[in-house]
Amino acid sequence: LAEYALHRGLGHRHRARNPFSVEHLKHHATVTWFAPTWKKGIAATLVLAVTAPPLVLWLGPVGWAAAVGFVCSYVSYEWLHRRLHTHPGRTRYGRWARRHHLHHHFARPRKNHGVSSPLWDVVFGTLDVPDTVQVPRAMALPWMLDAGGALRSEFSAEYVLDAGRS
Prior knowledge:
Blueprint: H1 2-12, H2 19-29, H3 37-59, H4 61-86, H5 92-106, H6 119-124, E1 133-136, E2 159-162
Parallel strand pairs: 1-2
């Protein structure tokens, strides 16, 4: 839920009015661009600083574990998100997650805000399942293309290069 809420709420509703949306809009403009690791480290530290005190007050020492677990989830999400952009999917889940997320990037930025799961997209009515993902040629990810710049045949059922969009 935190992943969905941050992505949809801070990333898409505030149009560069907060540090998260500034970075997020850069990422949408250039899908291979990611915020520097030091900025993500600051974000993780802030998340820990904000979540730990109330969790410790509410749960006692177990609250520390919950807060650290939340930060570990954030780090795992960041790893998965980068991986969706930099490597082809090898498993059924990996192929699904790329299609789901890249459709968000290339065609429907107001849909598919859940990167790792469609659960909250279903709950909030933002799920959009495409037959194929239309990929602007200028934004095609390196793993999608062969040496000649054409879509690799193993991805032809899931992606279509769109020469008319940039």
